[in-house]
Every structure is written in C-alpha cells, then in structure tokens.
Amino acid sequence: MRTTVFSIANQKGGVGKTTTAVNLAAALAEKKIPTLLIDLDPQASATSAIGIEKKAGRSLYGPMCGEGTAASMITATAIPSLSLIPSEEDLGAAEIELAQAENYLGRLRSVLAPIRKAGNFRAVIIDCPPALGMLSMNSLAAADYLLIALQCEYLALEGLGQILRNVERLKAAHINDALEVGGVVMTMFDLRTNLSRQVVEEVRQHLPEKIFEAVIPRTVRLSEAPSFGQTIFAYDPLNPGATAYRKLADEVIARFKLAGK
Fold it and tell me: What average pLDDT score do residues 69-80 get?
C-alpha cells in the first residue's frame, strides 16, 4: 500500500487547522482509508480532540531526537481505520533541540520512513503547530503534499503568500524537491457575510487548481466537539460541518487517488 503524507499547516492560529486535521482524518477513516493522524503541535489539541489522553513519552519528541521509533508511538483510537501518534508538552523542547542537531530539517522524514515502508497506512495527516518553526518545517520536509487551512477573512490571504514562499524555499534548497501544495481548505465560512464569499472567490481566482470545492462552515458544534474529545461525526453527525468534511474527504480521495493500492 502506497502511503501519502499530508502536512496541514498555517503559521496563523485559530484558522481551523486542527479541526480540519482531525475531522479530515476521521472522514477518511470512515470511508475505509487506513489513516494515521500525527499531532506535531506541543499544545496537543488534536490528541485531545480525538479523545486520547496526553501521556509523557508518547509523542515524536523521542524519535526525532534519536530515541525510540515512530511506530512504537502509534496509538489506536475509537475510530476504526484511524490511528494516532499523540503529542505532549515535551515536544515543544524539540523546537530548540532540533536546531542544534545534524540534518535538523530531515528528522521527521527519517523517523517516518519505516512507517512509509511498512505500508500499513494509505494516508498520514500531520497537524502542525500554528507557527512556521522547526516542527512545522520538519513536517513540510517530510510531506508529499501541503494542505493549507485558510480562514475566510482578508488577513488570511497575507498568510497564504508567506506559506507558499516557504514551500518554494524548501524546494529551492533541495530539502524536499517533491513537496507540492495539495490544496487550500477554506474554513470558518459564514454564509451571512459577503466577506466570506469574497475571500473564497479571491483564492479561487489566484489558485483555481488548488482550492477545494468543499467549504467548511463556521458552526458552534464544530467548535464544541473537541472539548468532548469527539470528532464532529460522533458529536453531531448531521451538522453542516460533518457534511462539509465528508465532502472534503471525497475530494481528497479522488484528487490524490487514495482509494487505489
């Protein structure tokens, strides 16, 4: 089974990045795509949102610093076909320690290589910290595709340019020649405002080949679900947010041919 690695990143916090990582991973698993969600954010929001308790020594901190393997950190979740590598506070120390290490941008790629080779997962989704620091750059260096979660507001457009420039820098430096922008997920769409529609239209004009048709609405239930340790599908399966993430999963499966071998 070929494994495709997706990094979900944005240097801005509060844009629906973790919500997208968790619910896209769950939606893929719901569609019988074997999926591994990696929480690379020291805040461990994705870990909590999937209903897994944070435990010291269960993140990629050790493997990225040369102790243990990524495979040994894989944890089962309550969702069939979905596994998790959790995060913990100690992962924050990796931002400092990796900067002093050899091959500091290639550490995550190295620790994920055996997981790719094993071929137990069709999709690996990495939830990055809300900053383009050492962990996020490692994620981009390890990924096949970058998926950008972009809030429907004008300030988000400035951040989009910054992310795209960082992708080009990584490729120019031959850190990850194969990295591609896989798509832009528009989040927190508010039907009541012209602004949301205008921002979506502007991104569609700039990146017509990249923007996903599925637009994630701003709903209270999507915001509430993580506090109960549940995906939107478990918390409120008929919510418009659940419908949107299922549609996004269908697009991701089709665009990246995840249903094949």
Answer: 97
In angstroms, the CA 123 to CA 3 distance is 6
In terms of Cβ atoms closer than 10 Å to its own Cβ (0-12, 13-18, 19+), residue 197 is: middle
Taking the whole predicted model, whether its pTM rises above 0.90 is answered as yes
What the chain holds in terms of domains, given with CATH numbers, is 4-255 (3.40.50.300)
Using an 8 Å Cβ cutoff, are 15 and 187 in contact? Answer: yes
d(CA 74, CA 251): 26
Question: What are phi and psi for residue 43, nearest 5 degrees?
Answer: -70, -15
DSSP 202-231: HHHHH-TTTB-S---B--HHHHHGGGGT--
10-67 pLDDT, tens digit per residue, is 766 667 899 999 999 999 999 999 999 999 999 999 999 999 999 899 999 999 999 9
